[in-house]
Write a structure and sequence with these properties.
Blueprint: H1 2-26, H2 54-76, E1 81-83, E2 86-89, E3 116-117, E4 125-136, E5 138-147, E6 152-159, E7 164-169, E8 184-188, E9 196-204, E10 213-221
Antiparallel strand pairs: 1-10, 2-4, 3-10, 4-9, 5-8, 5-10, 6-7, 6-9
Length: 222
């Protein structure tokens, strides 16, 4: 009997140890709660632009004039550009008859301050077509339009076979030039696979009311 008592005394602690170990093994892991992320700092308010002085405004005005003169000089002395040699138009101020070879002649040749003026202020469409002495694979066209720049709606190129190709149509976002006496309407495009001999500009008269005036037109290419 004493033998079994001693055995029970030895076994009891072992059972208690085993139970404790089991409880320790199955104890749930502590839950870790992440701290909330800090809110991003509010951006600092933008600084108010400093008001320009009279001298600074005058400097800006002169710089804009210089930029126009530089750009125009580049156009007018471009060795790849040629001016229109012949012209046809839809109408001329005071003469609504169909186009003839003599109408619109003021727009032939280089920029000289002499203009072709259309015959309509806000009705229908007008157009002016320039012919060039040397057909080229074109990359750019330039039209000197002093009034009505926003009324331009289409530009077409004519190849040496007489076929017309539209290279642009839509609404012009060009504003009348404020830094010079002329407005240059310029369209650049990939070199044409054909040679261009004529360029036609179409004007929607009601888009910008008033008479439209054109001084000259360049074709650029090789």
């Amino acid at each position: 009997m004493k033998k079994y008592t001693r055995l029970a005394l030895l076994v009891s602690p072992l059972i208690l140890i085993a139970c404790g170990k089991k409880e320790a093994e199955v104890a749930p892991a502590p839950v870790v709660v992440a701290a909330p992320a800090a809110a991003p700092a509010a951006p600092a308010p933008a600084a108010e632009p400093a008001e320009l002085s009279d001298a600074q405004r005058e400097q800006q005005r002169k710089q804009a004039l210089l930029d126009f003169a530089t750009r125009e000089d580049k156009y007018m002395n471009d060795p790849r550009a040629q001016y229109g040699e012949t012209v046809k138009v839809s109408s001329t101020f005071g003469d609504p008859s169909p186009s003839t070879s003599s109408m619109g002649k003021n727009a032939i040749g280089a920029v000289d301050g002499k203009d072709w003026t259309n015959n309509h202020q806000d009705i229908g469409f007008d157009w002016i077509e320039f012919g060039y002495a040397r057909p080229v694979q074109a990359t750019e066209v330039r039209l000197v339009i002093n009034d009505g720049a926003q009324a331009l709606t289409k530009v077409e190129l004519q190849d040496t076979d007489g076929k017309w190709n539209v290279i642009w149509s839509g609404l012009s976002d060009l504003k009348d030039e404020k830094n010079g006496p002329r407005t240059w309407f310029v369209k650049t495009f990939d070199k044409t696979p054909y040679k261009v001999k004529a360029v036609k500009y179409t004007i929607a008269n009601n888009v910008e009311k008033g008479y439209k005036t054109v001084d000259a037109a360049q074709l650029v290419g090789d």
